[in-house]
Amino acid sequence: xxxGETIRIPPCSGHAVExxxxxxxxxxxxxxxxxxxxxxxxxxxxxxxxSSGRSIDYASRLWLSTGDVLYSNRSRPMFTILEDTCGxxxxxxTPCSKEMFEKLYGEAEGRPGCEGNLARALAPWGxxxxxxxxxxxxxxxxxxxxDGRIAVLPPLSKPGDHVRLRAEMxxxxxxxxxxxxxxxxxxxxxxxxxxxxxxxxxxx
Amino acid sequence: xxxGETIRIPPCSGHAVExxxxxxxxxxxxxxxxxxxxxxxxxxxxxxxxSSGRSIDYASRLWLSTGDVLYSNRSRPMFTILEDTCGxxxxxxTPCSKEMFEKLYGEAEGRPGCEGNLARALAPWGxxxxxxxxxxxxxxxxxxxxDGRIAVLPPLSKPGDHVRLRAEMxxxxxxxxxxxxxxxxxxxxxxxxxxxxxxxxxxx
Lengths: 204, 204
Prior knowledge:
Largest sheet of chain A: 6 strands, antiparallel
Radius of gyration of chain A: 16 Å
Oligomer: homodimer
Number of strands of chain A: 13
Largest interface: A-B, 36 and 37 residues
Number of helices of chain A: 4
Distance between the termini of chain A: 18 Å
Shape of chain A: globular
């Protein structure tokens, strides 16, 4: 990948990339109404991972957006959300999986889902499927009723909407073009991303 | 512990216990308005753990109660909620921790919090602090506003309220009497629990 090049994540797949502190990751929904499940691990110690529960607690908000910080299980900042043109994401659900497709959709094909695709992308770093936590589900629209019932609705993202995340520590980040029909309005579209390196900015 | 004996978890501490499939765990709030953070691991493979994201997804509800199943990261049932006299619990936040006390309460004492107490209780099974996930926070009352803001309110539990959980696989379960003032209305009370063994029922 060359500096600032936009990479396409094909439908129903995943991709991992290393970031250094200060690098910026731009996750783009090129066609609208697609979801990208994102998770991250600290490259200096892979036992430190992106934590939904910490991030929600510190923001005192279920849904995070511009200015919010995504924390690790060790309560250290992993990302800051610098830009968010969509405004609605989920941080409560685990990535879709083979078992989830069977239970919720009655699918028998055994598609790996975002969980399997994240694990496959993270395999070179030694991160197994069991260690894929609740993800930051970018553009995923989960409505919560007053009685706590949840509904997975089509994303609010329009073509070209993006989220810009600044890495706050050395990270390996994995993200997907989501495989769950309900999350992406049964369209199964790609996701684009771009990395803007801190070293290129300081050299420029 | 003898059969059916009620054990008291002192304020701001944790306790772990092994359950076999069919055993029932009764978690009791003896004085009212106290929270117990609970997590669990499969004894046959400790990489399988209680998953908030899977459980919420399969229930399609943020707040779980009687009849709901608590799932593992591998989408297998770990517990079924057989009884729930309170009706409101949280499954979105990580256990309180030393770092959380510093960030949200400005505390400098370094109390271990539920995270540290769960890790201490789980140490004999080789489970470290990093592996304590988002917990099932029994009796914890987290209100969600329409805009996603959350508020930690005093628990709705009255003295003697309880939750009865049936183990669906061989488990090690850890639970606490919660250390976070906001969660328990700054009263820091104990939690009681009782294990009713399947083998005692079948022998009786």
